Amino acid sequence: MKPNSLVAAALAAALPSLAFAADPAAPLAPMYTDGAALTRDCDAALATVRKTVEAMASKTGGEGIFAEWNRMFVQVEDGSNAASLYATVHPAKDVRSAGEACEENFKKLNTEVNQNEAIFARVKAAKPASPKEAKLQRDLLRDFEDSGVALPADKRAKAKELFEKIESHRQAFERNVREDTTKVTFTPGELEGVPEPFLRTKKRDDAGNYVFGLDQPTYSAVMSNAKSEATRERYYRARFRQGGERNLEELYQVFLLRQQLAALYGMPSYADYRLRSRMAGKTQTVNRFLADVKAAVTPVERQEMQVLREEKARELGKPVADTKLSWWDLSYYSERVRRARYDVDQEKLREYFPADKSVDFVFLVVERLYGIRFRPADAPVWHPDVRYFEMVDGKTGAYMGSAYLDLFPREGKRQGAFAAPLTTASRLVNRKPSGALVANLDRRGFNQRELEVLLHEFGHLLNLLLSNVDYGPQAFTTVKWDFVEAPSQMFEEWARRPQTLGLFKEVCSSCPQLSVDQIKRIDDARKFGMATGYARQQLLAAFDMELAQNPRAPLEVWKSLESATPLGYVEGTMFPTAFQHIVNEYGAGYYGYMWSRVIARDLLSQFGDNLLDPKVGARYREAILGAGNEAEETDMVRKFLGREPSSDAFFAEITGRS
Ligand SMILES: [Zn+2]
């Protein structure tokens, strides 16, 4: 270490709040105060990309096409990524709208590129110089083929027509859900048990009653806490008609048209068409996986249901034999059992996990595991809540990438949590990665579930920031749908073990510390109801696969599947009318949530009892996080494991054997 950097390090240690100036190499996000400015930048970027596309199409032969594609990819990212992020998080409504419009325009341009015959011919003619380039070529050709460009002219026109029809039914389905204004009115008495602080945030009508929509936070608060079964049943019945009967037809049309699309490609079903570009690969593989999950969880699910039924009988003072458990009882009695059996009150955990200290905790974990550090730096942000950090090499301090953390809720911000890429790494053009972690966590401090959410999304962010690839299109954003959740699902475990949670005392000496016993009870509480949760996931995935293999009237398919579950089908409900996943990218892909978890548990097994082992961390960083999409996911996993992948750890977990 040179004397200068010693002084700098000493200064930084003495003045920890002193933020560094942003690194000159950092790709900072553009800032907007009005939508017009964003639109101007977006239009200029679209024009730039169009020029690049024309230049690419005017040449012949494969020479140089991968580097040209990479340049175009960078231009697309620079023109659209910040706009897409701002569409979901920007405090100014007109910037959000302009961001949405920009995203739409870039989507259209993307379709145009994938239907460009001249560029398709060039990619096809290219001679890859390495296995990575061969993989890039395969992936690009698959996207071209999926867009119909390789089909004969008549089929191509038909494919285009089908894509457009599917898109319009998809939009109608989503609109019907979004614009469903169903309100359910409850008197204060009917909401006994629902936490006061939650109710205080809710509006009341002139008669003093609460008028609720069907949004998830409100629905969960009521279903987990309302003592009155009639209240829960009424809300459940309203919720499971969201989108309305017309959505059954929209959904049916989407799957019928998808079936026709698959036929154009000579595939027997949409499932076959879709799965050929997923990690699972084949329809039979997914069907077998789902059957295995069902067989494994069913006995445990029945035991869990019995515990809930006993709890309900106890609360109502009735014999168990006369007590019927219903779907609308699940959350409520699960919460009661968790509180009674494990004495866990998630609300009380907030003082253990202050927001800032939780972020420091995650930074310390990744420092130990991967030898990288995060430090705050000065950069413009889109809202005062947002914090900017730079990722630097733990030894040399060299700048590696940038992260924006936007953790707290506010008006107009999208619900849920996600990681959004701004720039992805490309060694070819010395491009550094940057991205945003967006969440809606509680600023008073996190409960343990929220700490898991933070780690989960940080898992995605690390995948982006540590992608160490030549070509941008081979970084984390393009890994397969049934793999992409694995690194983030795995990272949740770091919020569950005494070893890792013990690091909290290093980042916050004044915070109360959880005891080993408390941590165990929190984790046991989490595991209670897990089989029931997986049984539900299995049901949804099986429904999706049914429609994707043999499209029929969705409600009939749903009724037959749900009737076979322990709680049965509730006459009058229509779950499929709001199942938005499967009209979107998760069509023939809902199984992916569980598939990723199989991989996540398998990857985790390599860490054994030491989740802070830097040797395993280094191997994991190289084989998985750094590799992006440069190799087949199965090969990456095999390389890290040093053996064939196995689903044992997953099945042990979902059946409570671990
Ligand atoms: Zn995720």
How is this structure best described in words?
The protein is α/β, with parallel strands linked by helices and 658 residues long. Helices cover 55% and strands 6% of the residues. The chain contains 26 helices and eight strands. The strands form two sheets. A six-stranded mixed sheet has the order 1-4-5-6-8-7. Strands 2-3 form a two-stranded antiparallel sheet. A hairpin with an 8-residue loop joins strand 4 (372-378) and strand 5 (387-393). Helix 2 runs antiparallel to helix 3 (65-89) and helix 2 crosses helix 5 (117-125). It is globular and about 80 Å long. The two termini are 46 Å apart. Bound molecules: zinc ion. Zinc ion (ZN) binds at residues 456, 460, 485, 488.
Q: Report the radius of gyration as a whole number of Å.
A: 26 Å
Model regions low in confidence, pLDDT < 50 over at least 5 residues: 1-16
**Oligomer designation:** single chain
Give a quick account of the main beta sheet: strands, pairing sense, barrel closure. Answer: 6 strands, mixed
Give the structural class: alpha/beta
Share in β-strands: 5-15%
- Average pLDDT works out at 93
The total count of helices amounts to 26
Sum up the overall morphology in one term: globular
Q: Hetero groups bound? A: zinc ion
Count of β-strands? 8
> Which range best describes the helical content: under 10%, 10-25%, 25-40%, 40-55%, 55-70% or over 70%?
55-70%
Strand order of the largest sheet: 1-4-5-6-8-7
Query: End-to-end span in angstroms?
Result: 46 Å
